[in-house]
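Dear support,

I submitted the protein below through the web form. The confirmation email said the job was done, but the results page showed an empty box. After a refresh the structure appeared. I'm attaching both so you can tell me whether what I see now is the final result or a partial one.
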Amino acid sequence: MNVYYGSLPYVSASVVSIGAFDGVHRGHQKLIRQALEHAEELRVPLIVYTFDPPPKVYFQKMMRLCSLEEQLERFARLGVRHVVVQPFDSQYLRREAEDFHRDLEALNPLALWVGPDFRYGSQRKGDINTLRNRFNVRVLEPVRCGFGEVISSSRIRSLLQNDQQAAAYDLLGWEFVG
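What the results page shows now:
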């Protein structure tokens, strides 16, 4: 797998899946699998675009569900061959939505795949509708567990903090190492 830390690969076309992907839980797995399937149909590479640390870990000092190394290993197990890891720090935080658009344009995306609550740019001013003004955006609807509740990193953290490891591990779909 090719990992680009703070840089972007040159590709003539791609499909890009964007997110924090903390834990690479079952919802993330579905998003990446669908984006990968779409990339294969278009015969272009899938690029997973993520952040280190995940924004909620940076801002809210939340527990991280897996290390960057584990995250990359999980991406590889899903068949991802290209990952952009942007350092999420005070410098990156100052970037405007337009800066993010330029990064994406450099990847020549035929489609962007995101979750329904995706926000970006300084003060989270960019959203899915902002992206749609410039790109072909595909939004994966929330993935739900057997009880009908949305699978999210926040929910998994809550389960872990309430000693409900089995339920958390089920939503992760991987062994919890954190």
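Response: this is the final, complete result; the empty box was a page-load delay. The chain has a mean pLDDT of 90.
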